[in-house]
Design a protein that fits this description.
By secondary structure, the chain is an alpha/beta fold. The protein folds into two domains: about 150 residues, Rossmann fold (3-Layer(aba) Sandwich); about 150 residues, Rossmann fold, CATH 3.40.50. About 40% of the residues lie in helices and about 15% in strands. Strands 2-1-3-4-5-6 form a six-stranded parallel β-sheet, with helices on both faces. Strands 9-8-7-10-11-12 form a six-stranded parallel β-sheet, sandwiched between helices. The longest helix is centred in the last third of the chain and has 18 residues. The two termini are about 30 Å apart.
Length: about 325
Amino acid sequence: MRVLIVGSSNPWRMEAATDHALQRAGHTTLILDDRRIKRAIGRRMTQHLVRARARRFKPDFIFLSKCLALDLETVRRLVADTPNAMWYHDPQWYRDTARPDIGHIAAVGRVANTFFVTGFDDEWRALGMNAKFLPAAGDAGIIPVAPRAEYAGDAAFIGTGYDQSRAALLLDVAKRHDVRVYGPGWDQWSKELKWNGRSVEGREFAQVCSSSAVTLGINPSRAAGGVTYTSDRTWMVILAGAFYLGQGTPGVTQFLRDGEHCAWYVDAADCIDKLDYYLRDPAARERIRKDGERFVRANHTYDQRIANLLSGNAWSLESVTG
């Protein structure tokens, strides 16, 4: 099958990971990075170039990301008479369609045959999309690497510092443990947290995960009430060799089992207690880390998601093995 992907060509983003999975499955692919094209030639010419490249490629299927650099009419013309799907990884923004960028994403989602989301599918369906649940995933190419001393610590968090509640939890944990934070946007807490001052990707991302005793997951406050939502970092850090301690929800704790594939906490106090417990038991951490990586590699990489993308079928827990 010939699959056209409209989205980021950054090798660390989900569109590129989907592209890799499709190619491993034997499909022919083309990525058109609409925002990169727009930066190079402007928005108006981007519409013409994307349509022309798509016509020449003659796709059998079109996979849409946010399409923020494409006019809605361009999207309509692209997908006319061609099977397609959209996959939106930030579903907690369903309340904010008055924002121009979120409103555009919602409009594209209504054009797409299927609007896959990683949570809050009922809420998106109420807004007029054919919304179906498809959890995020990790790239099968992410593997553990040898630890490095400069990344060692009790706990690491990898993510953006846009959410006050994330900072509050990390500040509580940092009162008791050595916590290191990686990613942009932590400037206002840089005195209290050990912050590297930038993003980590690729091999460096894996080094952080392999070197820290525990890698933390913290849901954004905007995702409160989400039963099945979790960030793609959940899968990525486990693939990269982390022992993962995340903020559990009723649905996600069924995808990954506590004490078997990872560990879960409910609030800051529980996070500190769980961190205390597992820091005292490195053998348990190593067992869970290995079993978690094996389980995620078998069930939660993009290689397992492309069948849903191409068929339009929602994901279900019954598809998980092991």
